[in-house]
């Protein structure tokens, strides 16, 4: 399910919507997440990002745009599609793109990122998006063979501070490094203005999740404003 170079080029300037719900939430259901993803596509999303094998499968049946899939295992350290086993399961569930932890941290199965990506290529042929937390991560991930670099983990690995909005400085640094692969802005993009700023900073495409697909958080934002 490898996306071609023209497929990746078609995502330039695109909005990618992440449809995920946390365990225990009412929306934590594959059919619901697929419906949310499909609604985002009606609104203009050119690709979607979903978590969990059942969600990936359901979403593939619900949309006609590229599906970025991931498998979260745990909540700390390397937990976004942490092993080759997880990655191959994500691809088998129907993801066009396998999103995984693209940091330089040790992986639970002992494989390097390069070995993991090679295993994905051999086992499924899926496109790989490396979720990175620093410029050094991005450089290493590109060298390991990642097809897409995301700023997803900026502020979550201890290498950079977690700021209130997207880490545009990191985005600009990765773009300036000219790694030869598209750079996807993701992480704490909560307003249309921030999404626009990410594109202006050089992002190939922008991923927005919480601000579009997470009602509990959105409700909290409004409530905080009313109570302040």
UniProtKB/TrEMBL annotation:
Its EC number is 5.1.3.9. Pfam families: NanE. Keywords: Carbohydrate metabolism, Isomerase. It is an enzyme of class 5 (isomerase). It catalyses: an N-acyl-D-glucosamine 6-phosphate = an N-acyl-D-mannosamine 6-phosphate. GO terms for molecular function: N-acylglucosamine-6-phosphate 2-epimerase activity. Pathway: Amino-sugar metabolism; N-acetylneuraminate degradation; D-fructose 6-phosphate from N-acetylneuraminate: step 3/5. PANTHER family: N-ACETYLMANNOSAMINE-6-PHOSPHATE 2-EPIMERASE-RELATED. Belongs to the NanE family. This is Putative N-acetylmannosamine-6-phosphate 2-epimerase.
């Amino acid at each position: 399910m490898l996306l071609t170079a023209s497929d990746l080029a078609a995502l330039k300037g695109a909005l990618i919507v992440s449809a995920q719900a946390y365990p225990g939430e009412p929306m934590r259901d594959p059919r619901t997440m697929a419906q949310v993803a499909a609604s985002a596509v009606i609104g203009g999303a050119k690709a979607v990002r979903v978590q969990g094998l059942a969600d990936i499968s359901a979403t593939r049946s619900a949309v006609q745009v590229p599906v970025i899939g991931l498998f979260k295992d745990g909540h700390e350290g390397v937990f976004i599609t942490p092993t080759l086993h997880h990655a191959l399961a994500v691809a088998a569930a129907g993801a066009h793109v396998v999103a995984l932890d693209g940091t330089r941290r040790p992986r639970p199965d002992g494989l390097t990122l390069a070995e993991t990506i090679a295993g994905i290529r051999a086992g499924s042929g899926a496109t790989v998006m490396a979720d990175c937390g620093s410029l050094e991560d991005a450089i290493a991930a590109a060298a390991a063979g990642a097809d897409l670099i995301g700023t997803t983990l900026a502020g979550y690995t201890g290498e950079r501070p977690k700021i209130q909005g997207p880490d545009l400085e990191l985005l600009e640094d990765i773009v300036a490094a000219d790694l030869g692969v598209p750079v996807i802005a993701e992480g704490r993009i909560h307003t249309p203005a921030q999404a626009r700023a990410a594109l202006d900073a050089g992002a190939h495409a922008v991923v927005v999740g919480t601000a579009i697909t997470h009602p509990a958080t959105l409700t909290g934002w409004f409530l905080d404003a009313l109570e302040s």
